[in-house]
Protein backbone atom coordinates (compact mmCIF):
# COMPACT_ATOMS: atom_id res chain seq x y z
CA UNK A 1 0.00 0.00 0.00
CA UNK A 2 1.35 3.46 -1.00
CA UNK A 3 0.10 6.47 0.99
CA UNK A 4 -1.09 9.67 -0.66
CA UNK A 5 0.65 12.98 0.27
CA UNK A 6 -2.33 13.95 2.45
CA UNK A 7 -2.16 10.62 4.25
CA UNK A 8 1.57 10.91 4.78
CA UNK A 9 1.02 14.39 6.23
CA UNK A 10 -1.44 13.02 8.80
CA UNK A 11 1.08 10.40 9.86
CA UNK A 12 4.04 12.83 9.95
CA UNK A 13 2.11 15.41 11.97
CA UNK A 14 1.16 12.80 14.58
CA UNK A 15 3.64 13.21 17.51
CA UNK A 16 3.77 9.41 17.83
CA UNK A 17 5.29 9.26 14.35
CA UNK A 18 8.62 10.36 15.85
CA UNK A 19 9.09 6.85 17.26
CA UNK A 20 10.06 3.91 15.07
CA UNK A 21 8.10 1.44 17.19
CA UNK A 22 4.93 3.50 16.83
CA UNK A 23 5.35 3.62 13.05
CA UNK A 24 6.05 -0.11 12.84
CA UNK A 25 2.72 -0.92 14.53
CA UNK A 26 0.84 1.47 12.23
CA UNK A 27 2.51 0.09 9.10
CA UNK A 28 1.63 -3.47 10.09
CA UNK A 29 -1.94 -2.46 10.93
CA UNK A 30 -2.37 -0.65 7.60
CA UNK A 31 -0.90 -3.56 5.72
CA UNK A 32 -3.77 -5.72 6.99
CA UNK A 33 -6.38 -2.97 6.62
CA UNK A 34 -8.96 -4.06 4.04
CA UNK A 35 -10.53 -0.88 2.64
CA UNK A 36 -8.17 1.57 0.93
CA UNK A 37 -10.88 4.23 0.68
CA UNK A 38 -10.99 4.43 4.49
CA UNK A 39 -7.23 4.71 5.09
CA UNK A 40 -7.38 8.51 5.61
CA UNK A 41 -10.02 8.14 8.32
CA UNK A 42 -8.01 5.31 9.79
CA UNK A 43 -4.85 7.43 10.01
CA UNK A 44 -6.75 10.27 11.67
CA UNK A 45 -8.09 7.83 14.29
CA UNK A 46 -4.68 6.74 15.58
CA UNK A 47 -3.86 8.21 19.03
CA UNK A 48 -0.60 10.02 19.73
CA UNK A 49 0.91 7.74 22.39
CA UNK A 50 2.07 4.19 21.70
CA UNK A 51 0.30 2.87 24.82
CA UNK A 52 -3.00 4.34 23.59
CA UNK A 53 -2.36 2.98 20.10
CA UNK A 54 -1.78 -0.54 21.41
CA UNK A 55 -4.90 -0.40 23.56
CA UNK A 56 -6.90 0.76 20.53
CA UNK A 57 -5.59 -2.11 18.39
CA UNK A 58 -6.21 -4.64 21.17
CA UNK A 59 -9.77 -3.44 21.69
CA UNK A 60 -10.41 -3.80 17.96
CA UNK A 61 -9.11 -7.38 18.03
CA UNK A 62 -11.53 -8.31 20.80
CA UNK A 63 -14.44 -6.94 18.76
CA UNK A 64 -13.73 -9.14 15.71
CA UNK A 65 -12.56 -12.46 17.17
CA UNK A 66 -15.02 -15.29 17.58
CA UNK A 67 -13.71 -16.50 20.94
CA UNK A 68 -12.56 -13.92 23.47
CA UNK A 69 -11.58 -16.63 26.04
CA UNK A 70 -9.27 -18.15 23.43
CA UNK A 71 -7.57 -14.78 22.83
CA UNK A 72 -7.20 -14.28 26.59
CA UNK A 73 -5.73 -17.76 26.96
CA UNK A 74 -3.19 -17.18 24.21
CA UNK A 75 -2.12 -13.79 25.55
CA UNK A 76 -1.72 -15.16 29.08
CA UNK A 77 0.24 -18.24 28.05
CA UNK A 78 2.58 -16.19 25.87
CA UNK A 79 3.17 -13.70 28.69
CA UNK A 80 4.19 -16.31 31.25
CA UNK A 81 6.25 -18.32 28.75
CA UNK A 82 9.05 -15.77 29.26
CA UNK A 83 10.95 -16.85 26.12
CA UNK A 84 8.07 -17.58 23.71
CA UNK A 85 6.10 -20.65 22.64
CA UNK A 86 6.98 -23.22 19.99
CA UNK A 87 4.44 -23.14 17.17
CA UNK A 88 4.48 -26.94 17.23
CA UNK A 89 3.22 -26.76 20.85
CA UNK A 90 0.69 -23.94 20.64
CA UNK A 91 -2.36 -25.86 19.36
CA UNK A 92 -2.03 -28.65 21.91
CA UNK A 93 -1.23 -26.13 24.66
CA UNK A 94 -4.35 -24.08 23.93
CA UNK A 95 -6.44 -27.26 23.71
CA UNK A 96 -5.16 -28.45 27.10
CA UNK A 97 -5.64 -25.05 28.72
CA UNK A 98 -9.12 -24.36 27.37
CA UNK A 99 -10.33 -27.78 28.52
CA UNK A 100 -8.50 -28.19 31.83
CA UNK A 101 -11.76 -27.94 33.80
CA UNK A 102 -14.17 -29.23 31.14
CA UNK A 103 -15.87 -32.59 30.99
CA UNK A 104 -15.75 -34.90 27.99
CA UNK A 105 -19.00 -33.49 26.58
CA UNK A 106 -18.06 -29.81 27.04
CA UNK A 107 -14.61 -29.81 25.43
CA UNK A 108 -13.56 -26.92 23.20
CA UNK A 109 -11.93 -28.02 19.97
CA UNK A 110 -8.71 -26.20 19.04
CA UNK A 111 -7.17 -27.30 15.75
CA UNK A 112 -4.68 -25.92 13.20
CA UNK A 113 -7.40 -24.04 11.31
CA UNK A 114 -8.59 -22.22 14.44
CA UNK A 115 -5.01 -21.37 15.36
CA UNK A 116 -4.23 -20.08 11.86
CA UNK A 117 -7.27 -17.79 11.99
CA UNK A 118 -6.31 -16.50 15.43
CA UNK A 119 -2.69 -16.00 14.39
CA UNK A 120 -3.78 -13.91 11.39
CA UNK A 121 -5.96 -11.70 13.60
CA UNK A 122 -3.10 -11.18 16.09
CA UNK A 123 -0.32 -10.80 13.55
CA UNK A 124 0.18 -7.09 14.35
CA UNK A 125 1.31 -8.04 17.86
CA UNK A 126 3.47 -11.08 17.17
CA UNK A 127 6.97 -11.86 16.00
CA UNK A 128 9.28 -14.88 15.96
CA UNK A 129 12.72 -15.62 17.36
CA UNK A 130 15.16 -18.54 17.53
CA UNK A 131 16.46 -20.18 20.71
CA UNK A 132 18.63 -23.32 20.76
CA UNK A 133 17.77 -23.89 17.12
CA UNK A 134 13.99 -23.72 17.68
CA UNK A 135 11.63 -21.05 16.32
CA UNK A 136 9.30 -19.48 18.87
CA UNK A 137 6.36 -17.10 18.78
CA UNK A 138 6.95 -13.95 20.86
CA UNK A 139 5.48 -10.48 21.33
CA UNK A 140 6.83 -7.80 19.03
CA UNK A 141 7.93 -5.55 21.89
CA UNK A 142 8.12 -5.46 25.68
CA UNK A 143 5.75 -2.44 25.81
CA UNK A 144 2.94 -4.62 24.44
CA UNK A 145 3.72 -7.36 26.96
CA UNK A 146 3.53 -4.84 29.82
CA UNK A 147 0.13 -3.59 28.67
CA UNK A 148 -1.21 -7.13 28.32
CA UNK A 149 0.19 -8.05 31.74
CA UNK A 150 -1.99 -5.34 33.30
CA UNK A 151 -5.04 -6.20 31.20
CA UNK A 152 -4.89 -9.98 31.65
CA UNK A 153 -3.74 -10.45 35.23
CA UNK A 154 -4.35 -7.22 37.17
CA UNK A 155 -1.88 -8.35 39.88
CA UNK A 156 -3.68 -11.67 40.33
CA UNK A 157 -0.71 -13.65 41.70
CA UNK A 158 -2.77 -16.78 42.33
CA UNK A 159 -3.71 -17.02 38.65
CA UNK A 160 -0.10 -16.44 37.65
CA UNK A 161 1.09 -19.32 39.85
CA UNK A 162 -1.70 -21.55 38.54
CA UNK A 163 -0.71 -20.83 34.93
CA UNK A 164 2.95 -21.54 35.64
CA UNK A 165 1.92 -24.84 37.21
CA UNK A 166 -0.08 -25.66 34.08
CA UNK A 167 2.91 -24.86 31.85
CA UNK A 168 5.26 -27.03 33.91
CA UNK A 169 2.83 -29.94 33.70
CA UNK A 170 2.38 -29.40 29.95
CA UNK A 171 6.11 -29.45 29.26
CA UNK A 172 6.45 -32.63 31.31
CA UNK A 173 3.70 -34.56 29.53
CA UNK A 174 2.77 -33.03 26.16
CA UNK A 175 5.85 -31.40 24.67
CA UNK A 176 6.91 -31.85 21.03
CA UNK A 177 10.61 -31.04 21.47
CA UNK A 178 12.02 -32.74 24.54
CA UNK A 179 15.24 -30.76 25.05
CA UNK A 180 13.41 -27.42 24.86
CA UNK A 181 10.70 -28.62 27.26
CA UNK A 182 13.29 -29.87 29.78
CA UNK A 183 14.69 -26.33 30.07
CA UNK A 184 11.27 -24.78 30.60
CA UNK A 185 9.99 -27.07 33.38
CA UNK A 186 12.19 -25.73 36.22
CA UNK A 187 11.45 -22.12 35.28
CA UNK A 188 7.70 -22.67 35.57
CA UNK A 189 8.01 -24.78 38.74
CA UNK A 190 9.95 -21.96 40.38
CA UNK A 191 7.47 -19.27 39.27
CA UNK A 192 4.58 -21.45 40.48
CA UNK A 193 6.38 -21.77 43.84
CA UNK A 194 6.21 -25.56 43.49
CA UNK A 195 9.60 -25.93 45.13
CA UNK A 196 9.28 -29.58 46.13
CA UNK A 197 8.48 -30.53 42.53
CA UNK A 198 11.33 -28.29 41.31
CA UNK A 199 13.98 -30.00 43.42
CA UNK A 200 12.61 -33.47 42.67
CA UNK A 201 12.66 -32.74 38.93
CA UNK A 202 16.22 -31.35 38.93
CA UNK A 203 17.43 -34.45 40.74
CA UNK A 204 15.72 -36.79 38.27
CA UNK A 205 16.86 -38.18 34.93
CA UNK A 206 14.09 -36.16 33.22
CA UNK A 207 16.14 -33.00 33.77
CA UNK A 208 19.20 -34.10 31.80
CA UNK A 209 18.45 -31.41 29.19
CA UNK A 210 18.66 -28.55 31.73
CA UNK A 211 21.74 -26.39 31.30
CA UNK A 212 24.28 -27.06 34.05
CA UNK A 213 24.58 -23.43 35.18
CA UNK A 214 20.79 -23.07 35.25
CA UNK A 215 20.57 -26.23 37.38
CA UNK A 216 23.09 -24.83 39.87
CA UNK A 217 21.21 -21.51 40.07
CA UNK A 218 17.78 -23.06 40.65
CA UNK A 219 19.03 -25.39 43.38
CA UNK A 220 21.26 -22.88 45.14
CA UNK A 221 18.33 -20.46 45.39
CA UNK A 222 16.44 -23.11 47.37
CA UNK A 223 19.25 -23.63 49.90
CA UNK A 224 18.40 -22.88 53.52
CA UNK A 225 19.89 -19.57 54.68
CA UNK A 226 20.44 -20.56 58.33
CA UNK A 227 24.03 -20.24 59.57
CA UNK A 228 25.25 -22.98 61.92
CA UNK A 229 27.47 -23.07 65.02
CA UNK A 230 30.92 -24.69 64.91
CA UNK A 231 29.76 -27.80 66.76
CA UNK A 232 28.48 -31.27 65.89
CA UNK A 233 25.15 -31.42 67.70
CA UNK A 234 21.41 -30.96 67.23
CA UNK A 235 21.94 -27.46 65.80
CA UNK A 236 24.64 -28.54 63.32
CA UNK A 237 24.07 -32.07 62.00
CA UNK A 238 25.97 -34.06 59.40
CA UNK A 239 23.80 -34.85 56.35
CA UNK A 240 23.37 -38.52 55.39
CA UNK A 241 21.76 -40.72 52.77
CA UNK A 242 20.49 -44.13 53.68
CA UNK A 243 22.28 -46.94 51.85
CA UNK A 244 19.30 -47.64 49.56
CA UNK A 245 19.08 -44.05 48.29
CA UNK A 246 22.87 -43.78 48.06
CA UNK A 247 23.05 -46.62 45.53
CA UNK A 248 20.63 -44.86 43.16
CA UNK A 249 20.62 -41.63 41.17
CA UNK A 250 18.73 -39.80 43.90
CA UNK A 251 20.59 -36.47 44.09
CA UNK A 252 21.32 -35.83 40.42
CA UNK A 253 20.71 -37.22 36.95
CA UNK A 254 24.38 -37.74 36.07
CA UNK A 255 26.27 -39.08 39.08
CA UNK A 256 25.73 -41.61 41.84
CA UNK A 257 24.63 -39.98 45.08
CA UNK A 258 27.86 -40.89 46.86
CA UNK A 259 29.77 -38.56 44.55
CA UNK A 260 27.17 -35.79 44.13
CA UNK A 261 27.11 -32.38 45.77
CA UNK A 262 24.04 -32.33 48.01
CA UNK A 263 23.06 -28.87 46.77
CA UNK A 264 23.88 -28.49 43.05
CA UNK A 265 24.08 -32.27 42.22
CA UNK A 266 27.42 -31.71 40.44
CA UNK A 267 29.93 -34.54 40.64
CA UNK A 268 32.63 -33.86 43.23
CA UNK A 269 36.08 -34.70 41.93
CA UNK A 270 37.51 -37.43 44.12
CA UNK A 271 34.30 -37.50 46.11
CA UNK A 272 35.13 -40.86 47.71
CA UNK A 273 38.58 -39.79 48.86
CA UNK A 274 39.57 -38.64 52.33
CA UNK A 275 38.38 -35.47 54.02
CA UNK A 276 41.59 -33.79 52.86
CA UNK A 277 40.08 -33.50 49.39
CA UNK A 278 40.07 -29.72 48.58
CA UNK A 279 37.08 -30.07 46.23
CA UNK A 280 34.54 -31.04 48.89
CA UNK A 281 33.23 -29.93 52.26
CA UNK A 282 30.94 -31.65 54.75
CA UNK A 283 27.22 -31.15 54.13
CA UNK A 284 25.63 -29.93 57.36
CA UNK A 285 21.98 -29.42 58.35
CA UNK A 286 20.14 -27.19 60.78
CA UNK A 287 17.70 -28.59 63.32
CA UNK A 288 14.75 -27.95 60.98
CA UNK A 289 16.19 -30.05 58.15
CA UNK A 290 17.93 -32.66 60.27
CA UNK A 291 16.91 -35.42 62.68
CA UNK A 292 15.18 -34.87 65.98
CA UNK A 293 17.28 -37.68 67.48
CA UNK A 294 20.72 -36.46 66.41
CA UNK A 295 23.48 -37.42 67.24
CA UNK A 296 22.09 -40.86 68.17
CA UNK A 297 20.08 -41.18 64.93
CA UNK A 298 20.06 -39.53 61.51
CA UNK A 299 17.44 -38.95 58.82
CA UNK A 300 17.99 -39.67 55.13
CA UNK A 301 17.80 -36.37 53.21
CA UNK A 302 15.92 -38.02 50.30
CA UNK A 303 13.46 -40.59 51.68
CA UNK A 304 13.30 -38.89 55.12
CA UNK A 305 13.44 -42.26 56.89
CA UNK A 306 15.21 -42.35 60.27
CA UNK A 307 18.34 -44.47 60.59
CA UNK A 308 20.87 -45.21 63.36
CA UNK A 309 23.90 -42.99 63.11
CA UNK A 310 26.67 -44.85 61.20
CA UNK A 311 29.20 -46.57 63.41
CA UNK A 312 31.69 -47.49 60.72
CA UNK A 313 31.06 -51.24 61.17
CA UNK A 314 28.13 -51.43 58.73
CA UNK A 315 26.07 -53.51 61.16
CA UNK A 316 24.40 -50.97 63.42
CA UNK A 317 21.03 -52.37 64.50
CA UNK A 318 20.97 -54.55 61.41
CA UNK A 319 21.24 -51.59 58.99
CA UNK A 320 23.94 -51.13 56.39
CA UNK A 321 25.76 -47.89 57.18
CA UNK A 322 24.32 -44.70 55.72
CA UNK A 323 26.54 -42.47 53.61
CA UNK A 324 27.79 -39.09 54.82
CA UNK A 325 27.20 -36.36 52.22
CA UNK A 326 29.33 -33.50 51.01
CA UNK A 327 28.98 -30.32 49.02
CA UNK A 328 31.29 -29.09 46.27
CA UNK A 329 33.78 -26.29 46.76
CA UNK A 330 31.71 -23.86 44.65
CA UNK A 331 28.60 -24.33 46.80
CA UNK A 332 30.72 -23.95 49.92
CA UNK A 333 32.09 -20.62 48.63
CA UNK A 334 28.70 -19.35 47.42
CA UNK A 335 27.19 -20.22 50.81
CA UNK A 336 29.54 -17.97 52.74
CA UNK A 337 32.52 -20.28 53.40
CA UNK A 338 33.55 -18.51 56.62
CA UNK A 339 30.77 -20.12 58.68
CA UNK A 340 28.89 -23.42 58.29
CA UNK A 341 25.56 -23.00 56.51
CA UNK A 342 22.66 -25.42 56.35
CA UNK A 343 22.57 -27.48 53.14
CA UNK A 344 18.89 -28.38 53.39
CA UNK A 345 16.36 -27.31 50.78
CA UNK A 346 13.56 -24.85 51.54
CA UNK A 347 10.51 -26.36 49.87
CA UNK A 348 7.79 -24.10 51.25
Fold topology:
Blueprint: H1 5-13, H2 20-31, H3 39-45, H4 50-64, H5 68-81, E1 85-86, H6 87-98, H7 112-121, E2 126-131, E3 134-139, H8 142-152, H9 157-173, H10 178-191, H11 195-202, H12 212-221, E4 237-238, E5 240-241, H13 243-246, E6 280-282, E7 284-285, E8 297-299, E9 306-308, E10 323-324, E11 326-328, H14 329-334
Antiparallel strand pairs: 1-3, 2-3, 4-7, 5-10, 6-11, 8-9
Helix pairs in contact: 1-3, 2-4, 5-8, 5-9, 9-10, 10-11
InterPro entries: DCAF12
Keywords: Repeat
Task: Give your account of this protein's structure.
Keywords: Repeat. InterPro entries: DCAF12. The chain is mostly helical. It has four domains: 44 residues, no CATH class; 89 residues, Arc Repressor Mutant, subunit A (Orthogonal Bundle); 67 residues; 98 residues, no CATH class. 43% of the residues lie in helices and 10% in strands. It is built from 14 helices and eleven strands. The chain has a three-stranded antiparallel sheet. A hairpin with a 6-residue loop joins strand 8 and strand 9. The N and C termini lie far apart (57 Å). About 1% of the residues have low confidence.
Amino acid sequence: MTLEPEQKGILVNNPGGEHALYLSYICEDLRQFGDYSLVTKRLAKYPQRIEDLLNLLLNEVYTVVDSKPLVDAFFKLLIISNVGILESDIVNMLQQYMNKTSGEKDKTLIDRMIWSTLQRQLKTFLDTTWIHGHQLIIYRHASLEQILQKRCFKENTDELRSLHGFMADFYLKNQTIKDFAARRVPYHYEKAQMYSELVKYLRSSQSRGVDRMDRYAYLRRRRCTRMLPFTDDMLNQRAYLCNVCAMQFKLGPFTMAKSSCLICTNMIMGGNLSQGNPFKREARLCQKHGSGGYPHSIQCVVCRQPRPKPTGTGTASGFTDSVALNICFDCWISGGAARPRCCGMELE
